[in-house]
Amino acid sequence: MEVKIIPSSSSFNVLALLLTFLLGISNVQADAPAAKISSKNYTNYLQKACHSTTYPQLCLESLSSYTSTFDTDYLKLCSTALTVTLKAASNTSSLVKALSKQRGLSKTEAGIIKDCIEETGDSIDELKRSLDAFGSLKGSSDIQFQISNIQTWISAAITDENTCTQGFDDRKISDEVMRKIRMEIVIVARLTSNALALINKLSY
């Protein structure tokens, strides 16, 4: 499968600390000279790939610890991006569920959080379906159809994630609760958007 990467000049700031918390990213690097050279090559490859995403800096931050996993294999890069996104979504879902048990929530706040739990759950299901389909791409007799399904599921996941945060704008909710949930969901939505952008560059 030949893959073409179209560069983009978009750049956004990243909530690095929150991303590290959601993904458990480690910055441990190999000391051997040969490993450093390989790591640099992989990082350059990742930087080029991330230029095609909506949030290139977030793309780089979230995937830089996994360069040895995909090397310069674009299909593996896309799969890794989905895996990272699913992990972040699952961790965020756990955080939102924990907030739902917080004392002192108004009925409105409890309702919004309940809706958000359902929407993040739907998003996780769609990301899982996408990742499962990605695992069976090699050897598939209809790769184009499979990738089209993956794109549809990821797009639906983005819609679910955005719907969660839109609930804050439509109804009254305390700043503290809104801030805690919005920060996590925004990161997941951006990771999901990046994963879709990478997959959209697949040629088959």
From TrEMBL:
Keyword Transcription regulation: no
Pfam families, sorted: PMEI
Domain Pectinesterase inhibitor: 41-198
Protein's UniProt keywords contain Secreted: yes
Protein name: Pectinesterase inhibitor domain-containing protein
GO-annotated molecular function: enzyme inhibitor activity
InterPro entries assigned: Invertase/methylesterase_inhib, Pectinesterase_inhib_dom, PME_Inhibitor
Major site of localization recorded for this protein: secreted
Assigned protein family: Belongs to the PMEI family.
Entry keywords, A to Z: Apoplast, Disulfide bond, Secreted, Signal
Protein source organism: Salix koriyanagi
